[in-house]
Amino acid sequence: MRAPSGARIVLLDDNPWPGGQIWRDGPQASVPTQAQRLREHVGALNNVQHHPQTRVIAATGPRQLLVEDAERGWVIDYDTLILCTGARELLLPFPGWTLPGVTGAGGLQALIKGGLP
Predict the structure, then answer these.
(1) Which residues on adjacent β-strands are paired with residue 74?
(2) Which of 9, 35, 41, 64 could lock onto 23 through a cystine, CB 3.0 to 4.6 A?
(3) What superkingdom heads the lineage (predicted)?
(4) % the chain with pLDDT above 70
(5) How many C-beta atoms lie closer than 10 Å to residue 31's C-beta?
């Protein structure tokens, strides 16, 4: 993560840790070294405010966002907004794809990380 000297960065993430869904921790999952390094790097940056488990609710005005976490809501003013929305799986239909128990790679990953039934 790089920014011009003196820039203030506010990182809003709906996950508890930086790194997105791919590094979401399951019940007994160990954190990959690359993910741990990223988390430590973000935590050590003085010009970055990380707000985990936080969502954008609305644009309240020009260059203003209303955000919330589990405990409060507040307004963030910004000069430049960069949206990093992540990726999503593209599941192309195939014969039998709507049958019970048939899932894509993303669904399988979520099951594994969430603990298989």
Answers:
(1) 67
(2) 35
(3) Eukaryota
(4) 85
(5) 14
